[in-house]
């Protein structure tokens, strides 16, 4: 594919100055070049909407392959087995998946279930001795996140979080520019993350399964984005909630939250998380020497954006393909992405989410 070649050429130039191990040029070697290294054998848990997207994207992976399924819906297992040629011995349900411990043909389980189920499922996978990739948000609060990190450490397995943007080429380029000091001293980040949610009966609007509302699901992109765009950890948050539909967005399920974060350098972030607005997917970073703006900034792509130096021209490659090949490289070779995708990274976002909810409740500035 021409676009991959162009991408390689551009990256091989910029990679010279990269102080990191992550090498997209190596990772996305032209399809004609055979890959003979190890392949990460992945079982997906929860065969829903996002899992369907991940499985399709993995068809283009060189280093990762879907080999197993964990599901509560037998009819889906039948369909997925046929589609992805998965042997029956690699299929489990939520009652018996601990038996995966005895399955030498599976390296990692990718948990893609409702947020409120992540903690227990991840800990069970860890106890079965398999590496875990968990979708965002990693859990529903920092206490859960810490338990997950501890359990995976104890079991000596890796815990990774599905932060696909950390592998997205335009995002990686802006982070590289920031690391190179090309924006100068950073002053401000704006993150707008939201969509208009439909079906009121879905798990995303159920406090127990979602852990909250828009903040857990989409606001987290602005939290994570503020951190990787500014390259710092916030030291305080303030937040304000607006609820226009208390029937749809029940107690504990946030519809819209505006929040602000302060960083040690003096930079500030102003963000919006909502389930009640369309077309809200924008990042803006402002520094003394330049700026970056991205819109869309975290959707499935293509991501679009520009900096004070011009348009971002890195090609679009399916995010989940890059992510899964990148995670395979991380697991097998220890190659780190430009921003971590590990459990500690997931935990940092959960601590900030806890602080935002606390700030909404108390109306006060919360120190981190
Ligand atoms: P879906 O509702 O489409 O799928 C969730 C699946 O989880 C279900 O199909 C079901 O699969 C399984 N499941 C197990 N228990 C339950 C339960 N009690 N209620 C509902 N489903 C259950 O959700 P998504 O795929 O959209 O989201 C799943 C996770 O992925 C979430 O954590 C979400 O935040 C994350 N996500 C991440 C995205 C990203 O870009 N990184 C994008 C979208 C989602 P089965 O029938 O096989 O058991």
Could you outline the blueprint of secondary structure elements for this entry?
Layout: H1 2-14, H2 24-27, E1 40-45, H3 49-58, E2 64-70, H4 74-84, E3 91-92, E4 108-111, H5 115-127, E5 131-134, H6 142-155, E6 159-161, H7 169-179, E7 186-196, H8 207-210, H9 214-230, E8 236-242, E9 256-262, E10 268-274, E11 276-287, E12 291-294, E13 305-307, E14 310-311, H10 319-333, H11 343-362, E15 366-367
Parallel strand pairs: 1-2, 1-4, 2-3, 4-5, 5-6, 7-10
Antiparallel strand pairs: 7-11, 8-9, 8-15, 9-10, 11-12, 12-13, 13-14
Protein name: Glucose--fructose oxidoreductase
Family: Belongs to the Gfo/Idh/MocA family.
Pfam family, one: GFO_IDH_MocA_C3
